[in-house]
Design brief:
The protein is built from 4 helices and 8 strands, in the order H-H-E-E-E-E-E-E-E-H-E-H. By secondary structure, the protein is an alpha+beta fold. Strand 5 and strand 6 form a beta hairpin. The model has no long low-confidence stretch (mean pLDDT about 95). The structure holds zinc ion. Zinc ion binds next to loops.
């Protein structure tokens, strides 16, 4: 196990679509080791999700772990540490809500992004079994943010108003800027 370096915005790997993983790869030792590294890296940096391209591995693999309870995003539904291979998203309701998103590949910044708030996620776990989840609210935002990394997208691409991209220290100090 090893803490890997998280690459930052500007690194070309963050901007290319990641490739699908094969059925054999999903159950391979190499992927198991990579996931161990991703978990250790996520816990070391601190965060609720990490996609493989963020450690310069351009494959369709991501982990998400949302601690439940009270947070700056309100009351959160807990999502235990889960590995998603080859995930896809179906939007069940186009209505959006916005959150101040952050990203380990864009350290220090927060941006206000609106996304659909009711989605279905399908993926494979590391045993090759199907995952099928329905998510609402902030959780729906987290999953869209993480899986965007697999398509070479960053949350900053989705900010409508550049005034709503700020440093997190200033956001904490001065509050939300007027749009
Ligand atoms: Zn991110």
């Amino acid at each position: 196990m090893a803490v890997r370096k998280i690459i930052r915005m500007g690194h070309p790997t963050l901007r290319v679509p990641a490739r699908q993983i094969t059925e054999q790869e999903i159950r391979s030792d190499a992927i198991a080791k990579l996931v161990e590294d991703m978990v250790e890296t996520l816990h070391d940096y601190g965060g609720i999700g990490l996609a493989a391209p963020q450690i310069d591995e351009p494959i369709r693999l991501a982990i998400i772990e949302i601690p439940g309870g009270e947070s700056r995003y309100g009351e959160l539904e807990a999502i235990p540490l889960t590995v998603f291979a080859n995930p896809s998203i179906e939007v069940l309701d186009e209505r959006t809500a916005g959150y101040w998103e952050g990203c380990l590949s864009v350290p220090g910044l927060r941006g206000f992004v609106e996304r659909p708030q009711h989605i279905r996620v399908t993926a494979k776990d590391l045993n090759g079994e199907d995952i099928d989840l329905t998510l609402k609210g902030f959780s729906a935002t987290v999953f869209q943010h993480e899986f965007d990394h697999l398509d070479g997208r960053l949350y900053v691409d989705l900010i409508k108003d550049p005034h709503q991209l700020v440093f997190e220290e200033e956001l904490a100090r001065y509050g939300e800027p007027d749009g």
